[in-house]
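BACKBONE GEOMETRY TOKENS
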Amino acid sequence: MSRSIRLLNLLQLLREQRHPVTARRLAEDLAISVRSVYRDIDSLRGQGVNIAGSAGLGFQLKENFLLPPMSLDESEIEAMYLALQWAKSIPDQALQQASHSVLSKLRAVLPQRKQEFLNDTYLKSIHSWIEVDQTIVEQVRIAIRLQTKIQI
């Protein structure tokens, strides 16, 4: 694995963690030495990535550092595509429109090679829904988001 890919993978691991993660754990996940983790953390910090570190606790990404879109691998692209295709079918007009919008944005930011991969996929989501009142579905979704009680 090249060093640049390893740095992106390290950044992604840190981004996925809600709590500090030890250098040992990062080293195990990346299949590298603990010393390499420390060197890579220093390299990322040198590039302006805000990574906090505490002895005994570990490292934590302090800002939502944006990864470039080309950091999505093919399995991640397929997972997003399937989830968005599924969401386009649910009986909630706002989520249908949002999933269509996100898929368009995904296509726009992917590099050409990965756009072609997405366009050529044969994966399809299979789903069936019972007939429901779309207004109620949307109200329930919004109530869940706002953590409010509703009466049906």
Summary: The helical segments are 3-16, 23-30, 34-46, 74-87, 93-109, 112-119, 134-146.
